[in-house]
């Protein structure tokens, strides 16, 4: 969870009142935080906020939430954006690179060191969480006085233009930035494989930024800045919009005045940002059923008011106005959770168990845990992947026919998660693909569950990638694991479409097949967009435990 460090004096200044450290220690956890450090003797406080509340990743957001929660406000904080004549033209060249952009202008700011540090910290926290390390969302903040609208968002060739980036000493082309600049090297993986790179330029071709990598030095925000342009680019339009809303409302809480930007894209015009509350309905009986309460509509409205909503009771239903920065509110159950927060978790009470029972560790889990230090000792790094996968990774990329018995998801949320995995090796291959920009060798393993023949099975799998990875190394690893747990396997040659012919073997004990290992076939390596040899193994821990 993100750890937010903020100044106690800044928080009290934004609250326009003094709140005791003890109050913060006891009340902030009630809205979704864990205490990290709150010392009476120092000004800096540290709380770990839940990942579903990106609007609380700044001192401004925390102050806004506390104003309502501590009883100073019982309604939604409204934000308005006045129109401007600033436009951003979106060129079609960005469609296959980074297709979406959203924006806003904030005027009348008094930029000081606390505000700059707060905005930089919020920006980076949003990059890591909502932005998925800049893959999904990247934010730029620019001094408007240094550039002239209209602005253009386009994709350029690697050496088509040059500009001086922040923390740079000279003008550089996009290609040079990705190769030589610190931020370029750190985030080059986001643009890997792209033939063009996105840039934002003004009327005079002055470069504001090269998202999602680095801003230009021409628009660097300083203590002399009064008006900023906020740009947000990404691959998910909803995430991009919420990132802008979270950032500009925080700036508005610092006294800024928000103005709109017109975005022209694909023959359509859009006005950004949209700060109007989003309307949702909450059934009172539904919320009471979820919470085990018996609250009236009026009482439930007061609870929601304490966490910053506007609420209008309409018989058995509440008409709820959701703040524009609440990216986490997707369903009525999310509103029911906030009813519980407003009601107060401490008021729900607690009961002791009616019966005294004693638990014991599952023998299979204990056996699986014995293999972890073995894998670490062999130089492997443990990973944990999702149990949901898709037919392409599980079957097509592994050169396997589709398994009609694989457990499918009836209403999948995404195309990437349509079935329950039948093997761990594809999941490890996907991890290697996501880390192909990292140095080699890479050795990873996972202990996890799969579903085979409608049964849960616990497997141990590992994968190694480097230029000289081969069958002998894989056999050595597997025999080391077997020796460590007291198993003497029979090594039998095997054929498997995902492995190189003649370089694949099974672990057996009599007629029982315990596992499989070998060199991954080049076509499978290419299917996962990898460029070096890969070896992998998979062991059925349940069968192995039964044998032992």
Question: How do you describe this structure in short?
Answer:
This protein is of the alpha+beta class and about 550 residues long. Helices cover about 30% and strands about 25% of the residues.
Give the key terms.
Phenylalanyl-tRNA Synthetase, Chain B, domain 1; 7-stranded mixed beta sheet; alpha+beta; Phenylalanyl-tRNA Synthetase, Chain B, domain 3; 548 residues; 16 helices
The gross shape turns out to be: globular
Strand pairing plus helix content: what structural class? Answer: alpha+beta
The share of residues in extended strands comes to: 25-35%
Q: Which residue ranges are poorly predicted, with pLDDT under 50 across at least 5 consecutive positions?
A: none
The profile of the biggest β sheet is: 7 strands, mixed
User: Number of helical segments?
Assistant: 16
**Overall CATH class of the largest domain:** Alpha Beta
Number of strands: 27
CATH superfamily caption of the largest domain = Phenylalanyl-trna Synthetase, Chain B, domain 3
Overall structural domain count: 4
Arithmetic mean pLDDT = 92
């Amino acid at each position: 969870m993100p750890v937010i460090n903020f100044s106690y004096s800044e928080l009290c200044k934004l609250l326009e009142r003094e709140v005791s450290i003890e109050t913060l220690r006891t009340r902030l956890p009630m809205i979704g935080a864990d205490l990290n450090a709150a010392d009476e003797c120092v000004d800096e406080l540290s709380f770990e906020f839940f990942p579903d509340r990106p609007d609380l990743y700044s001192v401004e957001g925390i102050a806004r939430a506390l104003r309502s929660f501590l009883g100073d406000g019982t309604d939604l904080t409204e934000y308005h954006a006045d129109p401007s004549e600033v436009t951003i033209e979106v060129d079609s060249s960005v469609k296959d690179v980074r297709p979406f952009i959203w924006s806003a202008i904030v005027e009348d700011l008094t930029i000081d060191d606390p505000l700059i540090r707060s905005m930089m910290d919020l920006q980076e926290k949003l990059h890591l969480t909502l932005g998925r390390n800049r893959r999904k969302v990247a934010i730029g903040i620019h001094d408007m006085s240094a550039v002239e609208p209209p602005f253009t968002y386009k994709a350029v060739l690697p050496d088509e233009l040059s500009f001086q980036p922040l923390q740079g000493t000279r003008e550089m082309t996009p290609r040079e930035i990705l190769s030589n600049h610190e931020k370029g090297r750190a985030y080059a993986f986001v643009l890997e494989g792209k033939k063009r790179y996105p840039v934002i330029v003004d009327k005079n071709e002055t470069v504001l930024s090269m998202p999602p990598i680095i801003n230009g030095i021409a628009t660097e925000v300083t203590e002399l800045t009064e008006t900023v342009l906020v740009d947000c680019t990404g691959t998910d339009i909803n995430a991009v919009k919420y990132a802008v809303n979270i950032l500009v409302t925080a700036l508005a809480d610092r006294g800024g005045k928000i103005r709109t930007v017109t975005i022209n894209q694909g023959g359509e015009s859009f006005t950004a940002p949209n700060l109007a509350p989003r309307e949702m309905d909450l059934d009172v009986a539904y919320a009471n059923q979820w919470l085990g309460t018996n609250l009236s509509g009026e009482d439930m409205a007061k609870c929601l008011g304490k966490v910053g909503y506007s609420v209008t009771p309409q018989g058995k239903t509440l008409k709820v106005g959701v703040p524009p920065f609440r990216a986490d509110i997707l369903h009525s159950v999310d509103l029911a959770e906030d009813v519980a927060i407003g009601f107060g978790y401490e008021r729900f009470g607690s009961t002791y168990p009616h019966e005294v029972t004693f638990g014991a560790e599952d023998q299979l889990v204990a056996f699986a845990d014995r293999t972890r230090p073995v894998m670490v000792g062999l130089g492997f790094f443990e990973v944990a992947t999702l149990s949901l996968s898709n037919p392409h990774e599980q079957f097509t990329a592994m050169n396997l026919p589709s398994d009609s018995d694989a457990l499918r998801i009836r209403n999948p949320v995404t195309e990437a998660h349509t079935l329950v995995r039948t093997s761990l090796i594809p999941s490890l291959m996907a991890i290697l693909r996501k880390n192909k920009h990292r140095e080699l060798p890479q050795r990873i393993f996972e202990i996890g569950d799969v579903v085979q023949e409608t049964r849960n099975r616990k497997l141990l799998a590992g994968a190694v990638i480097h230029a000289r990875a081969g069958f002998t190394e894989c056999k050595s690893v597997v025999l080391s694991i077997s020796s460590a747990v007291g198993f003497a396997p029979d090594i039998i040659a095997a054929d498997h479409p995902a492995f190189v012919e003649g370089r694949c073997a099974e672990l057996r004990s009599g007629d029982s097949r315990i596992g499989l290992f070998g060199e991954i076939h080049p076509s499978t390596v290419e299917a996962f967009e990898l460029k070096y040899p890969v070896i992998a193994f998979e062991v059925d821990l349940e069968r192995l435990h039964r044998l032992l």
